[in-house]
Amino acid sequence: MTAEPADRAARSRGRRLGVMGGTFDPIHHGHLVAASEVANMFDLDEVVFVPTGRPWQKSDQLVSPAEDRYLMTVIATAENPQFSVSRIDIDRGGPTYTTDTLADLRAENPDAELFFITGADALNQILSWRRPGDLFDQAHFIGVTRPGHTLTDPGFPAGSVSLVEVPALAISSTDCRARVAKGQPIWYLVPDGVVRYISKRRLYRDG
Ligand SMILES: Nc1ncnc2c1ncn2[C@@H]1O[C@H](COP(=O)(O)OP(=O)(O)OP(=O)(O)O)[C@@H](O)[C@H]1O
Ligand SMILES: O=C(O)c1ccc[n+]([C@@H]2O[C@H](COP(=O)([O-])O)[C@@H](O)[C@H]2O)c1
User: Fold this and answer.
1) Can you tell which superkingdom this protein's organism belongs to (predicted)?
2) Is residue 111 a contact partner of residue 98, using CB atoms and an 8 Å limit?
3) pTM for this structure?
């Protein structure tokens, strides 16, 4: 039996939905720990990982095909019943703007509370994102600590951003890519299935 729209709306009412956006090239344990910690601290029902389609602020660097980044994100999150992956930023096409991500997720989840999770480095850049003034009305932002970056509030609108400490994992996608290019292991930096996917698809071999 399929659910009536009213049932679906009732089920999504009051849901607390975390949103973890990222290029995930590749996804690593720093991303997963941040999402897991925030889900616990903020009593989230679900965290949806949203791989970027075209990350316009990384246009000066080579980014792996969206389908590879999407599949690695699915592999990394598959075993956690609280985690899911959305294709919205990939399927929309064009440069990826978080204001669009949040508008689309709002349309899919009209009654959910949205919490956008971001590391300290990304949060520090947020005023350079598209329509920063709108973002804080679209979701509550949660900035998480990340080794090597300072987590500060430069004067965000009152009550719009929470800054939280998560277990420190000095892992970055840049470092994982560089390690693969040099033939060094990335076991335990990323989930095992992601190590195998990178090897199977021969990603990052050319530096
Ligand atoms: N080790 C980490 N601890 C906490 N947050 C992280 C960590 N790594 C990434 N993040 C956050 O996850 C989100 C997505 O990050 P992204 O996919 O760009 O990974 P990255 O490791 O920063 O990649 P790259 O090195 O290619 O820039 C961003 O908000 C980022 O700040
Ligand atoms: O909205 C923007 O203009 C914007 C600019 C840069 C980054 N973002 C978002 O920030 C998140 C982390 O991005 P990245 O590229 O650091 O992985 C991801 O969800 C991006 O879509 C968003």
Assistant:
1) Bacteria
2) no
3) 0.95
